[in-house]
Design goal:
This protein is mainly alpha-helical. Helices cover about 60% and strands about 5% of the residues. It has two domains: about 140 residues, no CATH class; about 100 residues, no CATH class.
Length: about 290
């Protein structure tokens, strides 16, 4: 699913960087009415800062340190534990309503897991495997039936199933939610087939995503640093900027050469004029000071 989301996102990121529209205000009724798709625009930054001061931005046990300050989040557990999915959401909802982004993101994962299961047409997938001559796990279908049963009550409660949990979690400061927000537009404002004529919403999503990525990168998140290198490399709603690309990749290589190998850096460096090389080095130093040094 994430591969499809990223492919769609790369197309939707493309836009005229000079076409900047003001963001609309958030809809306060998003969770009371539970619309099918949320507004992509979060509340003012001051709200997020107050919430972030009260609650952790991620589960500290999932943090993997990269150098002195930089880090990545490694979520190795399954999205949803066995049990009634609606009750799992309700158990987290009070924390979410209080402003805890981590709880809101956990709810997003529960709902996403159920939605993937329900929309995946598991019986048809099983039959396709058999037609292809494969021998699927004989217990697989029974496990799917159990999962569908566990998701049934949640899927029939639109106030929970259709609520904009990802946008809420990102607004509340969840690191994982902000990263996912920036690549999964379908979870934010809907599939690509429904976006014709919704340029203001697309532009707001792009601007919000960039703001999240820059904020996370400045805080040392390695995935955000890598994402920004891709943004400036491909010109997603910004002018292509090989200097910025090389700067971000120098930072990644400095954190761990396994992120970006020296062969890639050397090839990029040769493509830049001497003045651009110096500018990239200066930018890399500035980025590193913000993101990765104490």
């Amino acid at each position: 699913m994430l591969v499809a989301a990223i492919a769609t996102t790369l197309w939707l990121w493309r836009g005229n960087s000079d076409d900047v529209r003001p963001q609309s205000s958030p809809q306060a009724a998003a969770f009371s009415n539970a619309p099918a798709r949320p507004s992509p625009v979060p509340s003012p930054a001051t709200t997020q800062h107050l919430q972030a001061a009260r609650f952790p931005a991620y589960d500290p046990s999932m943090r993997m340190a990269v150098g002195l300050k930089a880090y990545s989040i490694q979520r190795e557990t399954a999205w949803r534990a066995p049990g009634d999915a609606r009750q799992q959401v309700l158990a987290l909802k009070r924390q979410s309503d209080a402003g805890e982004g981590l709880a809101s993101y956990e709810i997003e994962l529960i709902v996403r897991d159920c939605r993937n299961l329900i929309n995946g047409n598991p019986e048809e997938a099983w039959q396709a495997l058999q037609r292809a001559g494969m021998r699927p796990d004989p217990n697989h279908l029974s496990r799917l039936e159990i999962g569908l049963g566990e998701c049934s009550a949640l899927s029939q409660d639109p106030t929970l199933y259709d609520a904009p949990w990802l946008a809420r979690a990102a607004e509340q400061g969840s690191v994982e939610a902000q990263l996912l927000y920036s690549i999964d537009i379908e979870a934010v404002i809907g599939p690509a087939s429904t976006l014709t004529g919704r340029d203001d919403e697309l532009q707001a999503w792009r601007e919000t995503s960039l703001r999240y990525l820059h904020s996370l990168a400045d805080g040392g998140n390695v995935d955000a640093l890598s994402a920004l290198a891709s943004v400036y490399d491909n010109g997603f709603n910004v002018a292509r900027d090989p200097v910025a690309v090389h700067a971000y990749r120098q930072v990644l290589s400095r954190l761990d050469p396994r992120y970006i190998d020296e062969t890639t850096l050397a090839r990029e460096r040769r493509a830049l004029a001497p003045e651009q090389q110096r500018k990239a080095a200066d930018q890399a130093d500035a980025i590193y000071k913000r993101c990765c040094s104490l």
